[in-house]
Amino acid sequence: MIDCSYLLPFQGWLETHFPTARLLVVGGSVRDALRGVASKDLDLEIVGATPEEVAAALPWPVQQVGKSYGLLLVDLEGLGWTELSVDPGEDWEKLCRRRDFTCNAIAWDVVSGVLLDPLGGRADIEAGVLRAAGPRSIAADPLRVWRAAQFCARFEWAVDASLLGDIAGVLDLLPRLPRERVTREWEKLLVLPRRPSLALQLLSDWGVIERCYPELWALHGCEQEPEYHPEGDVWVHTLMVLDQTARLGAPEDRLVLGLAALLHDLGKPSTTVREDGRISAHGHERAGLKPARLWFSRHSFGEAIELAVLDCVAKHMRPMQLVREMDRGKMSPSQQVNALRRLVRDVGHVAWPVFLTLCESDQRGRGVPVGEYLPTRIFGDLLREHPVLEMARADLLRGRDLLALGVAPGKAVGEWIARVEQARDEGELATSEEALQWVRARLE
Predict the structure, then answer these.
(1) Average model confidence (pLDDT) for the chain?
(2) Residues linked to residue 132 through DSSP beta bridges, in sequence order
(3) What DSSP state is assigned to residue 407?
(4) No. of H helices and E strands in the chain?
């Protein structure tokens, strides 16, 4: 069933040094083969040797990454860094119960070509059911709660009833898990499923959102104006936007887009009001920055991703606002270019196409049909006709320009640059030559 010819050099080495040991292909590669899906995963397990013995004898570069689990990373020729579990036991039926779910507790014996499936994982895969590998699987590593949500969304499986009880039993442990490990699970949960909203809804149904993420839980029941959001509350809208980013975004952008979709409306619970029978949440973009930063403080996505997402949170309403201003016919062509330059500059931590994809997903992630997303066409025309992206990245004047005009070195240079850029934002200046004349006149 599984072609293991590429493992022949490694199998030959193992037979020479550990003739009684068995080499098994385990985990995701076997699971995906049974699902008829090509897999990028390759997890190997050696049964019948100790990690120390194997690490000492390996002729390839090796790193020990999970001492308590006998986990090694081996740089195999032609395969790259490969995860290798080593266990001195010899009974796979006992060893496989340490794994997370029955779908991952299946092994392929490289030598005999026999599928080892003591827990009925193949039947669960065919039935589309996620079941724990043992009664202690979730308690042994509560992080598997996130993985369960990811698998159910990714494969569109149902959850075994006993697994639901196991999850309920570890809820109090979840806030104390290492944030680095939780972050890795969030990455997979947001990027791998075709509809990540399924995973988020499961985490909500299981009590994980309420227990671990109060800023996300506050979106439940937060009303929206039915005319613009007939889909329901902010939580429902958030899930719809999340799925739109998965549909519209490039694979390499899905993590930033997924995080931005998840957090973009966190400011609505604190700004939503009902006046004269209408519901509004004016200023929710800026109000969302504080809870978004709080959410990031529990994870370790890195500064670049956090800043990109925060730009999306704080500015996601501006494209449509700018288009409406242009439609009123009160902006000259130069004013339109200048306004778009300011917007591009203000979201400088996130790539412009990624930001615009998030904003389009926000428009489409609601219960009203959306035809053409106007900012894409209108801004696209301006970007083709004018070097807006280049203009947004550079100030009109540099320090040496100001020094040549007689500005004293030091703090004054930065202050003049800021004054020039403010005048540029207000439409007084458009070119470097105009900026030089503007500064020269004020210095005189």
Answers:
(1) 92
(2) 101
(3) P
(4) 26, 11
